[in-house]
Amino acid sequence: MVAIFVVATIIVFLVIDYFIQRAEKRKVVQVAAAPAKARFVIPKGYFFGHGHTWIEVLSDNLARVGLDDFAQKIIGRIDDVAFLPAGDEVAKGDVLFTIRQGDKEISFRAPISGKVVSFNDELTSSPDVLRTKPYSDGWVAIIRPENLENEKQLLSRGEAAAQWLREEIKRFRNFITIQGNSSLGSPAIAGATMMDGGTPVEGVMEHSSKETWKKFENDFLTK
After folding, report:
1. Residues 53, 172, 167, CA angle at the centre, nearest 5°?
2. For residues 138 and 120, is the Cβ–Cβ distance under 8 A?
3. Which residue among 23, 35, 80, 135 has the highest number of C-beta atoms inside a 10 angstrom radius?
4. Cα angle value 139/127/207 (rounded, 5°)
5. Looking at residue 201, what is its pLDDT?
C-alpha cells in the first residue's frame, strides 16, 4: 500500500511539472524568418511601441521601458547608453535614451508620456546588459505614465506584436539592401545582412555608416 502511495505521489509531481514546463514555454512568442539563431523574442504581457521599445506595466502606476530584442540584435555591440536626467517629463515620441557604438549613435523615443522616475544605472558601467538581458536586467527607464490607458491603444502585444515584427523584419531587409547598394552605406553590407533567404544577421548595423544609422533611426524609431 505504501509503495502504491509513493508511486502515485511521483506521478502527481511529474504531471504538475509537465504543466509548469508547458506554461513556461508559452510565456514568450518567438518570431523567426529562418534559422533559430535569428529569432526575435517577444515576451507575453509586454506592450511594444513601434519605435522598438517595450513597456512592462508595474504596480503603483509605474511602467518599465526597454529596448526590444530586434533592435538590440541588429545594432550589435553597445559601447555606451546616455539618458535624459531623471525627473524630466517626456511626451510620447520624445527622445528617451541614446545608444552609442564607436562614433555612431542612435536615439530611441519614449513609447508613453509621463515623468521619468529613474534610469537603470547598471547600463552606464555595463551597457552590454541591454543585449544579454533586454527584457529583464537590461531595462532602461521607469516612467510614471500620464495617459497610459489611452496610449496603450497605440501599442502592440502578443500575436499582434509578433505580426508587426514580421513586417518590420521584411521592411528592414529591404532597407539594408537598398543602403548597401547606395552611397549611404558600404556595398559589402547588402550581402552580409542576408541569411537563409533574407533574415537580418545579428550585429548587421556594426558594418554600416553613420548616415545609415541616422536613416534607420528616422525610418524605424521615430514612431
Report:
1. 75
2. yes
3. 135
4. 115
5. 74
Residue 93, C-alpha cell as written in the block: 515620441
For residue 46, what are the domain limits? 33-220
Residue 82, domain member (yes or no): yes
Residue 198's pLDDT is: 54
pTM of the model: 0.78
- Give the separation between CA 218 and CA 138, rounded to whole angstroms: 24
Q: Looking at the domain assignment, is residue 179 inside a domain?
A: yes
Low-confidence ranges of the chain (pLDDT < 50): 2-27, 32-37, 183-197
User: Which set of grid coordinates corresponds to residue 3?
Assistant: 509503495
Sign of the dihedral defined by the CA atoms of residues 53, 75, 40, 28, in that order:
negative
